[in-house]
Amino acid sequence: MKKINRVFVTGCGGMVGSSLYPCFKEKGYEIKVTDKDVNESWLDFLDVRDFEEVRRQIFEFKPDAIIHLAALTSLEYAEKNLEDSWNTNYLATKNIAEISKELDVPMVYISTAGIFDGSQNEYDESSLPNPINVYGKTKLYGDLAVRHILKKYFIIRPGWMFGGGKKDKKFVSYMMKQIKEGKKELNVVNDKFGTPTYTYDLVRNIEALLGTDNFGTYDTVCLGKTNRIEIANAILEILKRDDIRINQVNSNFFKKDFFVPRAESECLKTAKLDLIHLNLMRPWRDALKHYIETDWK
Known about the structure:
single chain, alpha/beta, Rossmann fold, three-stranded mixed sheet, 10 helices, 39% helix, globular
């Protein structure tokens, strides 16, 4: 297999990108990182919905691999903005897959546990998808486009994401910000289950996979199934904060802000990473401790 030296990245201004850029620079890759939100000095502007500009920039850079991080990840936004969601999560992915095929280079696509309906306790790479919201549907069509167009691809399925510090817009950040604001009570849902994914470990697993020809779909999550209550308690334990109380509520408590249906279980199993002996994902408690002690110190 051809050695990967030059990597083109879309959507690198978010959570995953904030971990990916330093990792790949440290490993010595020549890397061009883009986003439509140029929030770092090392980012170049690129809107993945602009197919001609995407094609121009990728062909000009001549990458050995393309990592496609760009996506609309807000479930509520996706539900209310159908055209934008389909253009970003499906059509842009399809277009980049076509470019990867034309250049004959591997493509990494970040998928989601949100393509499943939650009717099973746990899912692996062979499980049948059945998304229950617009976000899940658009991401699933991205999956299918990559599989249909390419032979050289890595579809990466993370779980409940955390990482990226100030760019973290997920549950751990939501808890940390409330604690920082001085809240003494935290309302946490008790009816959702999943497997966390630490962006720091995720990008190292992506980098390791890129050095192989083990193409395919990989569930890439921390070890251990959990729920929001356990994660919240673990945060307080790491911070040594026994002065904060956790109130258990169900999802209806947040219905006004988070009105889109979410699967009861988004637990993934790293079956294929284990099979090829390339699982770099840590237990979620260890990863969470590392995150809080570095990005939130």
